[in-house]
């Protein structure tokens, strides 16, 4: 059952006696409560005297005293009481969310990250949970034995065997349940576009209980989320905190955590201090775009709304001053307005203001607003430029500067996020500002929120801060750190057990408790190596961080040094290189005896112990030595599945190549060839885009990109180098035509049967012109046909179509499925049909109906989709994670390919070797997309320092290019 608003205080006299009783109880937060009690005492005495004088002993103005005078005075009394836990809260022995019948749980021998001491404390010990609360946290064995005995028979005892235990993850920015998955028009309730200012709207009123994402988020360790309205409006409405577990009542209300008492009536006066409320604001592009206005308009709307609220607040204060003085004559009703009461509460310091704000201009505007109307800002969300203007944040109204709730590497999708930096969390922390990592689910799927902290940590945020950033800090910023975000006695029993240290790549919960109730029915565990049980040792990014600030967020990304001479990489642990059908190991150092790799004209000419390679460089006059510190050399990764190379900023049309005209659903201009036109991506390439260069710096040295389509027909893809400065530079275009691409799906404006029918016609009667020529190539098996498709039903139809065409022509088609979220359902058939699959996104999510049947991977299923397809001998390549499979809004994540495949190996639990994993994002992608063998064999190699390319502890140092006969140092 969900918490119920407390009963309304009835008689002020009662208030006095209750206060007297409770004044004796004590624990945390005593000072705040004492304050409150004194206030209650004083105002209650005043009320009592007033009631005595005016009601019990009426004087001459008795006739003007309203009937509900004492209620009105109660209301006046409560106006400026600040939110703080109820005075009984710290003495609670049972959670308001306790589900009777829940078995107490004792977890012993855990490595407990408590959240205490700014996230620095971890202890080896035991945790007892009962009645929805953490009842005991301790290290001593005798207490453990005593408790086991006390609960004998009625206790679930789990030996954690040293595994990490943390509080549940707290997501401060989620649209879970208001933008539920799979996405269907009937339930998209996150944004109202009726007006830019609507502080009266409430996310609770649109909270869908059937979102597929609840159980996925829980599987990632998320236990509590703040559900925000979207950012279409300057004031989008009120946000609500929910716990994600299912409830017996199955209602939105029963999921709420500490909802405000005045949920069902703004007039409700509680006998307790109020609970925190939450308000969503948004500045910048979104409200401007939706309402066709400028930033100037938006801020005038903010000021106008706050001015209105301030007038109401002032009239209430004047009213109450008179009422307290007994001057009822002509006073009328208490001034109130249901539309504006939430804003009035902001001015009274009772609301956590959560503001979507990206750029310096918006941050500065909003900080001025906070000072003009004197309200504190809980956090700036997205906050892409807060790291550039820390002093602006420090100028905000109130005693604590706003926190920054941000993404790790999701950026450059719009102009406002163009200057985002992966070093932003660390820079903010260095400036003494609070950092939160958030999902903006489903932008980043909240199941993977911990990965945001992992990346922030990789780029320099200290581990204790990175942990706090998704657990304790959001709890504090939401005003709920009296019950969630820490492992402490008396706190909510929201606890996660992990299979590794949470900051290690691929960290996965083995069990998640919400209110003491285990949430994973029969979780699948992966055994992790010992090295994953401690936070990774992250690379040194001091120089890059400094440069980022120096260049106002846009540091140059081009390689620093070009070497045409002999380069000797020393202290090398492994060398992998391209082989005919995958990746071959060329060198593995003996333990503790790293070797060298000698590179001449961009080719590795010798690997081994230094002595054995001396002949290759001893006599050379010009040799550069590069220490890899135990690192490795491996094939450069190849990306596919985004609009990389065809755009700079996804949401700025003037920076992107644009979508082709789709011959199936639109009229193609005659001048380009009408229906028979086939567009080539090579004709639209842009070089030196920031996403390309960042990809290059992260070891993704090339990419295959098809023309962007919003319909059925795309065109011919191109294979290009991500590090080239322009199209005519050496090695920029690796292969001008890779494959022919089409998309099939339910979102295209032609029936799926029409789409399949079109494909059948093209394959059986290719016709004339360019279109005929290229489909002929497909039928002849000379050019792969790459089909973007997710639905298992369409995939099955395509497999049958392939057989039908092959039977008729007697030739074999090279068919590759990309996207392929539901392909796992047909793994056997796909394997038998020798059809390849590029899994994109690499970790599945049920964004749409045709992608709803995902194979989620551990802990929800024993295998991941990738491992499952591989076990059926399907040739698998990986795409990127991106955002909702949008080819445009995914180019930022190309750089994360190495983390994505590292994660895929971990998730496969030892069934994928490092060679195979490297192949998933290089050789296989090339094979599936028609890259010629001799071209593939000339692919770039990547030198990484401090580990191999897939290690979370390594850093890419250089690119070795046989094709360009050179080495670049980054
Ligand atoms: C804790 O672990 C130790 C060894 O690691 C083991 O001897 C002991 O039995 C465990 N205790 C409990 C309560 O699980
Ligand atoms: C293709 O030919 C094989 C062998 O003749 C036959 O078994 C199969 O049913 C045919 N498939 C289609 C789709 O026509
Ligand atoms: C996959 O290939 C291997 C080796 O060729 C073979 O032994 C195995 O049976 C195949 N598996 C499936 C599911 O076809």
From TrEMBL:
Keywords: Membrane, Transmembrane, Transmembrane helix. Residues 165-504 form the Amidohydrolase-related domain. GO terms for biological process: purine nucleobase catabolic process. The keyword Transmembrane applies. GO terms for molecular function: allantoinase activity. GO terms for cellular component: cytoplasm. It comes from the Eukaryota. SUPFAM superfamilies: Composite domain of metallo-dependent hydrolases, Metallo-dependent hydrolases. It comes from Rickenella mellea. InterPro entries: Amidohydro-rel (IPR006680), DHOase/Allantoinase_Hydrolase (IPR050138), Metal-dep_hydrolase_composite (IPR011059), Metal_Hydrolase (IPR032466). This is Carbohydrate esterase family 9 protein. Residues 253-275 are annotated as: Disordered.
């Amino acid at each position: 059952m969900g918490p119920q608003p407390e009963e309304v205080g009835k008689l002020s006299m009662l208030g006095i006696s209750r206060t007297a009783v409770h004044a004796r109880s004590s624990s945390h937060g005593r000072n705040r409560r004492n304050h409150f009690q004194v206030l209650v005492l004083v105002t209650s005495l005043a009320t009592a005297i007033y009631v005595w004088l005016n009601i019990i002993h009426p004087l001459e103005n008795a006739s003007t005293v309203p009937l509900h005078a004492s209620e009105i005075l109660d209301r006046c009394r409560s106006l400026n009481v600040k939110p703080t836990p109820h005075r009984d809260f710290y003495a609670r022995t049972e959670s308001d969310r306790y589900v009777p019948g829940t078995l107490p749980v004792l977890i012993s021998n855990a490595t407990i990250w408590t959240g205490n001491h700014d996230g620095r404390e971890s202890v080896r010990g035991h945790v007892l949970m009962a009645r929805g609360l953490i009842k005991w946290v301790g290290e001593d064995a005798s207490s453990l034995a005593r408790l086991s005995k006390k609960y004998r028979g009625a206790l679930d005892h789990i030996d954690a065997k040293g595994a990490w235990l943390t509080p549940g993850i707290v997501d401060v920015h989620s649209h879970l349940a208001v933008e539920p998955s799979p996405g269907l028009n009937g339930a998209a309730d996150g944004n109202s576009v009726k007006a830019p200012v609507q502080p009266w709207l409430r996310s609770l009123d649109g909270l869908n209980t059937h979102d597929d994402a609840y159980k996925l988020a829980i599987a990632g360790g998320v236990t509590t989320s703040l559900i925000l309205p979207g950012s279409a409006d300057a004031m989008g409405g009120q946000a609500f905190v929910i716990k994600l577990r299912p409830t017996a009542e199955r209602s939105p209300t029963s999921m709420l955590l500490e909802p405000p008492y005045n949920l069902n009536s703004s007039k409700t006066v509680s006998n307790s201090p109020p609970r925190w409320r939450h308000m969503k604001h948004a500045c910048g592009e979104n409200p401007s775009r939706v309402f066709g206005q400028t930033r100037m308009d938006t801020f005038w709307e903010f000021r106008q709304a706050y001015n209105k609220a301030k007038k109401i607040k002032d009239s209430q204060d004047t009213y109450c001053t008179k009422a307290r003085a007994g001057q009822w004559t002509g006073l009328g009703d208490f001034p109130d307005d249901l539309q504006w009461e939430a804003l009035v509460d902001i001015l009274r310091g009772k609301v956590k203001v959560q503001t979507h704000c990206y750029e310096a201009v918006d941050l500065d505007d909003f900080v001025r607003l906070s000072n003009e109307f004197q309200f504190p800002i809980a956090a700036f969300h997205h906050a892409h430029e807060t790291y550039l203007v820390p002093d602006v944040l420090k100028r905000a109204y109130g005693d604590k500067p706003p926190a920054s709730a941000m993404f790790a590497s999701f950026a450059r999708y719009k102009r406002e996020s163009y200057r985002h930096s992966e070093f932003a969390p660390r820079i903010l922390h260095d400036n003494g500002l609070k950092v939160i990592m958030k999902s903006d689910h489903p932008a980043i799927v909240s199941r993977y929120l911990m990965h945001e902290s992992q990346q922030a940590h990789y780029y320099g945020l200290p581990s204790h801060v990175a942990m706090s950033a998704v657990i304790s800090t959001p709890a504090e910023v939401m005003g709920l750190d009296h019950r969630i975000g820490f492992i402490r006695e008396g706190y909510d029993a929201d606890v996660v057990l992990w299979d590794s240290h949470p900051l290690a790549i691929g960290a996965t919960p083995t069990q998640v408790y919400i209110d003491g109730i285990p949430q994973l029915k029969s979780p699948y565990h992966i055994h992790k190596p010992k090295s994953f049980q401690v936070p990774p040792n992250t690379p040194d990014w001091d120089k890059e961080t400094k440069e980022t600030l120096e260049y106002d967020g846009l540091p140059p990304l081009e390689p620093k040094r070009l070497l045409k001479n002999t380069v000797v990489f020393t202290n090398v642990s492994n060398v992998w290189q391209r082989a005919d059908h995958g990746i071959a190991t060329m060198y593995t150092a003996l333990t503790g005896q790293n070797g060298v790799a000698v590179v001449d004209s961009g080719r590795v000419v010798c690997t081994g112990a230094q002595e054995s390679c001396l002949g290759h460089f001893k006599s050379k006059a010009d040799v550069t030595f590069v220490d890899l510190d135990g690192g490795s050399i491996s094939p450069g990764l190849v990306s596919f599945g985004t609009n990389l190379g065809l755009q700079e900023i996804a949401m700025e049309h003037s920076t992107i190549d644009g979508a082709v005209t789709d011959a199936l659903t639109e009229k193609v201009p005659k001048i380009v060839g009408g229906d028979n036109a086939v567009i080539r991506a090579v004709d639209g390439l842009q070089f030196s885009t920031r996403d390309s260069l960042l990809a290059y710096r992260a070891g993704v040295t090339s990419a295959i990109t098809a023309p962007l389509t919003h319909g059925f027909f795309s065109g011919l893809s191109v294979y290009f180098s991500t590090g080239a400065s322009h199209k005519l530079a050496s090695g920029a275009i690796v292969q001008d035509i890779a494959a022919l691409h089409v998309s099939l799906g339910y979102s295209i404006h032609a029936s799926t049967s029409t789409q399949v029918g079109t494909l059948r016609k093209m394959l059986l009667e290719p016709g004339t012109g360019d279109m005929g020529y290229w489909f002929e190539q497909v039928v002849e098996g000379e050019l792969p046909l790459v089909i973007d498709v997710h639905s298992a039903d369409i995939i099955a139809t395509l497999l049958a179509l392939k057989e039908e065409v092959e039977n008729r022509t007697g030739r074999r088609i090279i068919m590759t499925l990309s996207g392929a979220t539901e392909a796992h359902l047909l793994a056997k058939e796909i394997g038998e049909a020798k059809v390849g699959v590029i899994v994109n996104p690499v970790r599945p999510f049920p964004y749409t109906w045709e992608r709803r049947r995902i194979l989620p991977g551990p802990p929800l299923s024993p295998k991941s989709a990738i491992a499952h397809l591989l076990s059926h001998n399907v040739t698998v390549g990986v795409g990127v994670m991106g955002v909702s499979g949008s080819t445009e809004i995914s180019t930022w994540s190309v750089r994360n390919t190495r983390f994505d495949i590292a994660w895929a190996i971990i998730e496969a639990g030892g069934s994928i070797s490092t060679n195979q994993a490297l192949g998933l994002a290089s050789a296989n992608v090339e094979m599936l997309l028609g890259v010629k063998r001799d071209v593939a064999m000339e692919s770039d190699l990547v030198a990484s320092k401090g580990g191999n390319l897939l290690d979370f502890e390594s850093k890419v140092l250089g690119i070795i290019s046989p094709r360009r006969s050179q080495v670049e140092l980054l």
